[in-house]
Write a structure and sequence with these properties.
single chain, mainly alpha, Growth Hormone, Chain: A
Length: about 425
């Protein structure tokens, strides 16, 4: 794309992209890698074991997943900006209440709110809005809008580690809640309203088809009768399960490997840098070749990273693992952002994505509890990493076999027969 055309596109699409970045960054406060940074303090002050805290987290995440089935489809009916503001205010309220948590019951309720608002709704709204607003250059737009994910992953672990040397973990949560309302909500409101105004005023931003043509869109019921959807799930659910489980137990990981938490925290910069580079590169690739072309390859880096981490205790292995995991994460954001829109259209994307998101949230819900239970029963983390490495590489092979079927498009009417 010529420089002038690129600058014109960025200027026109800027509010929508900024809205997406803010949503993906804001989702960080309900993501596992952020919440797990306080796992040690929560276990200590509330008297919880690895396994019990893991199961609390699992229960809260499961409940948030079921709630998302109903809340997710609201993105097809109401203003995404208004929904995002409401979710962010709720997230801020949960953060303030976290500062005063004194029982595991209240902790479970707050984790439910943080998981539903952060990992669930904010990410869901971003991945619904951007594919809907952009069609012609959907991959490039997703690559930019998803930068909020690696930005949060790079900055927040280091910031929290430093803040823990200056204030208590409760004070950190209080400051977070205030800043979400004072800073993030006004920015999100402006970007979202401006983006929706530009989309409503013409086809330039969304890149919709010319007059007289219409993009085929499936309903959620039709998608749930499509065998391709279920054939994809074993591989698509692998990264959220594995990444959530490993990062939730990162404190235990650094203990058995003999690393300092700050050393491993610094590796998030490598993770974020790799995820950003891969995400941006994959965006243009998807615009040219479709997201199905990424399916056989995006899981491979994670598989090799897990095998490396299982086999050595060097901090160098931890750094390489974070880079390889970042490569898979960067590819996954583009694959998951574009795949459903390419296969099923955008008219019912919120409802369709809510089902896919729920299943991924369920995977993240199960991971901490399962891995914590295995740890409590003497199954080493290294052994678990090795098994997950083999499974991930097997899923990559499965995707290679599925690709011809995924690349073909079936008329929605066929699903009624």
């Amino acid at each position: 794309m010529p420089i002038n055309s690129r600058n014109e596109w960025l200027s026109r699409a800027g509010p929508a992209l900024g809205f997406g970045i803010l949503l993906t960054f804001g989702s960080s406060f309900g993501q596992t890698y952020f919440l797990s940074l306080f796992a040690g303090e929560l276990r200590s002050e509330l008297g919880l074991s690895h396994g019990f805290l893991g199961w609390i987290y699992t229960a809260a995440t499961l409940c948030s997943a079921f709630a998302l089935v109903w809340l997710g489809k609201l993105a097809d009916r109401y203003s995404i900006t208004a929904l995002a503001i409401a979710v962010l205010v709720g997230l801020a309220a949960c953060a303030v209440l976290m500062a005063g948590v004194t029982s595991w019951v209240l902790l479970a309720l707050l984790l439910f709110g943080l998981r539903l608002g952060g990992q669930g709704m904010l990410g869901h709204l971003a991945l619904t809005a951007i594919p809907r607003w952009f069609r012609k250059e959907r991959g490039r737009a997703l690559g930019i809008a998803m930068l909020g994910f690696p930005a949060g992953e790079a900055l927040l672990p280091i910031i929290v580690a430093l803040l823990l040397t200056l204030m208590t973990w409760r004070e950190i949560w209080l400051c977070l809640g205030v800043n979400l309302v004072v800073i993030l909500v006004p920015l999100l409101a402006w970007f979202g309203r401006e983006a929706e105004r530009r989309v409503a005023n013409g086809p330039q931003l969304s890149g919709r088809a010319a007059s007289g043509t219409r993009e085929l869109s499936w309903t959620r019921q039709q998608v749930l009768r499509d065998r391709r959807f279920f054939a994809l799930l074993p591989g698509l659910l692998a990264p959220p399960f594995i990444m959530t489980g490993v990062l939730f137990h990162q404190v235990h990981l650094v203990e058995i490997k003999g690393w300092a938490l700050t050393e491993f925290g610094a590796c998030y910069l490598l993770y974020a840098g790799t995820a950003t580079a891969v995400s941006l590169g994959c965006g243009s690739f998807v615009d040219r070749y479709r997201s199905s072309a990424l399916l056989p390859v995006y899981l491979v880096p994670l598989g090799f990273g897990l095998a490396l981490l299982a086999g050595t205790s060097s901090i160098f292995a931890g750094a390489v693992f974070m880079m390889l995991m970042g490569a898979t994460a960067g590819g996954a954001t583009i694959v998951l952002g574009a795949l459903w829109a390419e296969m099923y259209g955008t008219d019912h994307l919120g409802a369709i994505r809510s089902v896919a998101t729920v299943l991924m949230v369920l995977a993240t819900a199960i991971a901490p509890g399962v891995m914590g239970w295995l740890l409590d029963h003497g199954v080493s983390l290294d052994w678990q990493l090795a098994v997950m490495a083999g499974y991930t590489l097997a899923c990559a092979l499965w995707f290679a076999l599925l690709r011809p079927t995924i690349s073909s498009q079936y008329p929605a009417a066929e699903m009624r027969s």
